[in-house]
């Protein structure tokens, strides 16, 4: 009887663990480049990479259920420039993608470089989530970008779909401000974490959320059925980007779209009609005057 009870307990535990793993939203690859350092062993950052990857890929950040095929593909690429007294410093490139309905194409959603990150790390550390305070900056950074990825992805599937995740990211920003760590005050830098979130959720640049939905759900998702209708919907969505540029010409949202979507947009409209190419070229040239070489294929 004791063996049967133990077996049933083990089975229940395995089921619970499996359900928890399936609930995690991200399928994230993590890379760490520490080639600039001479004072740290490779094992130190190999352990850190494994720790971060396990955390991002097994944590359920929201109450939503994600099946394995629904998990959001993303990548965290750390470049470490300093490691002194257990303090890691460097930059972080965060990327996320979204599958397009009826095709094998994967569309980039986020491609953002956080140029100034730092956090405490000692081999053997664990990452612990807390919702009421920020105990470790590493956990705060990872949680922030996880929620941002989920929010942006959700916005591409439903109007204002990412609201709850944006609120969770905003809560992290509010709690982290008091720590004195860099990146959590929008007033300090127009391209840090806090500035990016504020731009997406507040003011004229927040139209990016509506743009993301229209661009992907009413544009890219129907390209396989009707390329002409898909391009027309995308062109209409990009008129919102023109409005954002007019109202907030220095917004980080514009560079966010440039870094994640510009090549994709050019590729889509390079297959369009002459009038479509001309209209999009005019719009993009005004918004991104320094990107002439990337817009070349839109010209006649």
Structure description:
The structure is a single chain. The protein has 300 residues and is α+β, with helices and mostly antiparallel strands. 49% of the residues lie in helices and 16% in strands. It is built from nine helices and four strands. The protein has helices at residues 2-23, 42-58, 137-157, 163-176, 193-201, 208-217, 227-247, 252-269, 274-287, and strands at residues 26-33, 72-84, 87-99, 106-120. Strands 1-2-3-4 form a four-stranded mixed sheet. The relative contact order is 0.09.
Q: What are the salient characteristics of this protein?
A:
single chain, 300 residues, alpha+beta, four-stranded mixed sheet, disordered N terminus
Give a short overview:
The chain is 49% helix and 16% strand. It is α+β, with helices and mostly antiparallel strands.
